[in-house]
């Protein structure tokens, strides 16, 4: 499956994202829109003619990926307007997406730092942050204040930003989506500024020893207030073989086992070359490649309190497994 253009357009403001998607459509481009408000409805517009179709299935993301795979075989150029509550990142990992365009309005930061639920597992903040984090191009709809811009400088440092009125089909020329290693890649994109601006700051934490499970649980609470985004790779004394991926946005947080540390694995060959190289360079005599690494973007939290909480959660007295 090869397409010249498969661009995903995401944004919490449905009308604003729809307008951007329409502006990206040029000659020979099909426009697809997915709406989850009443089932899984797909609208396909080609050469001014539109048709709607209701997709079957209980898994919206599964049905959407299957439908898009079929459309990508039929059309060489596709612009896809996603439902506001869909995140483009997981879709882009499964399909040959060429660009992710995320539309942010002047309410984006409030959404990205709140704790309203989308469903039982996700918050609106996780969706809002996911939109910005996955983007190859950010389209600004409205006037973003200094604090929002400071957050984006740290969350999506290398991503080009344009105003909605500047959107045109040629914006997609030369854009090529580059998927990243979600687990062992950089915790922050690009080279974000580490200095504070408009109350926004990046806090990093690194340690080698294991976390005590109870103390870690207490430390995680500091990430639920005044934090835009936190990502980390962690390990606990009670589960020494597991790589734990920490992801938080606003009032939502998840800590999940995602892989095995190479120190506990007999199959180094299955790991990506960049992971093997990094493990070899940073090997610890007691812990191997196990490491605590955390990057936090704050907007109203005390950086020292975050550092202190995670420092106190490490079992400094333990020297071996």
UniProtKB/TrEMBL annotation:
Domain CobW C-terminal, residue spans: 200-314
Record InterPro entries: CobW-like_C, Zn_Chap_cDPG_Synth
SMART domains linked to this entry: CobW_C
Name of this protein: CobW C-terminal domain-containing protein
Organism of origin: Actinokineospora bangkokensis
């Amino acid at each position: 499956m090869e397409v010249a253009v498969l661009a995903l357009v995401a944004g919490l403001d449905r009308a604003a994202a729809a307008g951007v998607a329409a502006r990206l459509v040029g000659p020979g481009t099909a426009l697809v829109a997915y709406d989850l408000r009443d089932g899984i409805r797909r609208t396909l517009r080609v050469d001014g003619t539109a048709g709607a179709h209701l997709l079957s299935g209980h898994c919206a993301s599964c049905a959407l990926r299957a439908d898009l795979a079929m459309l990508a075989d039929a059309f060489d150029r596709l612009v896809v307007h996603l439902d506001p509550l869909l995140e483009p990142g997981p879709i882009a990992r499964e399909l040959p997406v060429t660009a992710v365009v995320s539309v942010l309005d002047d309410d984006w930061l409030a959404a990205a730092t709140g704790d309203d639920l989308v469903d039982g597992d996700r918050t609106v903040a996780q969706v809002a942050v996911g939109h910005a984090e996955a983007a190859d191009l950010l389209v600004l709809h409205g006037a973003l204040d200094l604090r929002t811009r400071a957050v984006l400088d740290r969350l999506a440092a290398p991503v080009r930003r344009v105003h909605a009125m500047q959107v045109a089909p040629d914006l997609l020329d030369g854009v090529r989506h580059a998927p990243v290693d979600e687990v062992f890649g950089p915790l922050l994109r690009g080279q974000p500024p580490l200095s504070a601006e408009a109350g926004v700051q990046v806090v990093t934490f690194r340690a080698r020893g294991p976390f005590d499970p109870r103390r870690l649980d207490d430390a995680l609470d500091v990430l639920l207030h005044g934090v835009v985004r936190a990502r980390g790779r962690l390990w606990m004394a009670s589960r020494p073989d597991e790589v734990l991926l920490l992801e938080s946005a606003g009032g939502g947080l998840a800590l999940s086992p995602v892989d095995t540390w190479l120190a506990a694995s007999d199959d180094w060959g299955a790991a990506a070359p960049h992971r093997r190289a990094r493990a070899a360079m940073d090997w610890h005599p007691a812990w191997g490649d196990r490491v605590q690494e955390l990057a936090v973007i704050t907007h109203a939290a005390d950086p020292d309190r975050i550092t202190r909480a995670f420092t106190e959660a490490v079992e400094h007295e333990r020297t071996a497994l």
